Amino acid sequence: MSGTFKIVMQEIIRETLNARRLLCPLPVIRTQDKVKQLNTGDQLEVICTDPGVMHDIPAWCRINGHKVLESRSGDHEYIIVLEVGEK
Amino acid sequence: MSKQRKAVALISGGLDSMLAAKIVMEQGVHVEGINFFTGFCVEGHTHAIRAQDNAKPNRNNALWVAEQLGIKLHIVDVIEEYKKVLINPKHGYGSHMNPCLDCKIFMVNKAKQWIVENDFDFIITGEVIGQRPMSQTKSKMPIVAKQSGADDLLLRPMCAKNLPATKPELEGWVDREKLHDITGRSRKPQIEMAKQFGIDDYSQPAGGCCFLTDKYYSAKLVDLWKAQGDKDYELDDIMLLKVGRHIRPKPNFKLIVAREEGEGRFLQGYKKEFISMHCSSHPGPLTLIDGEMSAEDLFFAARIVARYAQGRDEDQVDITITQKDGSERTIQVKPFSKAEVLNEWHV
Questions:
Q1: pTM of structure
Q2: B143: which of B29, B254, B283, B314 lies 20 to 30 Å off by Cα?
Q3: How far apart are CA B87 and CA B326, in angstroms?
Q4: B335 falls in which pLDDT band (50, 70, 90)?
């Protein structure tokens, strides 16, 4: 038996999405569109001003198989960091 | 082994579309949800903007429904494409600015495009004959199917037995006998069905989740179009119609006066697009000025802004005017009395 095994060490990318001033569901839509461009394991930080994202982005992550790594708020901003799941 | 069929369900966040998806899922079909954001499905926006509502749950009902059903949800931004539906609806408006029939045709058409692109087999909606006077009548159901291009790939599980069989039924992808024959505006059958499925938490927004069914919102939209001389709009325009008191004392300009802290914070984000005013000698709301104004108009507007500040009963207050570039100047004005701010100015 012969074969070639190619192991690709993929670089993890961390990007930031500015979703300030957008009201839900637009931050979710922008997150969804950005995640489509990323690979499994990549991280996306989403910065928002609509407090609704604290419910909506984690809910969107749960139903689409992505993982919320961090969520925090302060100074009227809401920040969620997610890791892209299996695609 | 027969191929597992795939359907996309239009998920509004209400009970009917949730049940429709569930009925088909129960038959072993793979279902995913789709939700279209027109810019007017803004039920969550008031909560998001207004500080006093922040204690209330702020969930997006379509996402919540998808999570309850355990299905994926695809939220699609159709803001630009939706303009042609709203500006020139082939089938006209409902009691306000709601183009419900054209809207339904548009959304089913978008779903049809989606199933073609994603190799799905058919479309599910939660429509019920007689539920809504404009778009959900027995005579309108075939119009939606035909004009959307979905034809017999559009399955309405809630009332399918009252309609001709569709391809999913004829091909045996779903069992027609397990579909339903609900008609009319009563919610009892849906509530009973929800109980049977063990669903006890759901949203039932009156008039759906669209602001175009709201007469006050519609009046502001009509005012916007009249003032600008055409029926076009941008997303910011229609968002701002949701916020603050809209006061148009003259045809060439209107004021958007924040009603509380959350709205004021939201309007702050527009200070580079609009001239703004606030009372600097007394506490008072941020106000955006939309339109072209003369120096006399500016003074007139400042007297209205003063009316909404805590110094409204003073002989004179300071109003700071901020230009789009951030430059400021302050003028002194006498606040208008309550009677001087005419009711007909309120949009």
A1: 0.90
A2: B29
A3: 35
A4: very high
* The pLDDT of residue B284: 96
| Burial B260-298, CB ≥16 within 10 A → b, else e | eebbbbbbeebeeebbbbbbebbebbbbbbbbebeeebb
Tokens of B232: 């076009």
Pick the residue from chain A with its C-alpha nearest to B54: A51
Q: In CATH, what is the architecture of B6-211?
A: 3-Layer(aba) Sandwich (3.40)
Which among A21, A49, A56 has the least Cβ separation from residue B60?
A56
Whether B280 and B328 have beta carbons less than 8 Å apart is answered as: no
Cβ <8 Å between A60 and B73: yes
CA distance B294 to chain A (A): 30
pLDDT tens digits for range B85-130: 999 999 999 999 999 999 999 999 999 999 999 999 999 999 999 8
8 Å CB contact of A52 and B58: yes
Residue B262, pLDDT > 70, answer yes
Q: Please give the CATH number for the structural domain made up of A14-83.
A: 3.30.110.40
Provide the pairing of β-strand B275-279 with B317-322.
Answer: antiparallel
Min Cα distance A74 → chain B (Å) is 14
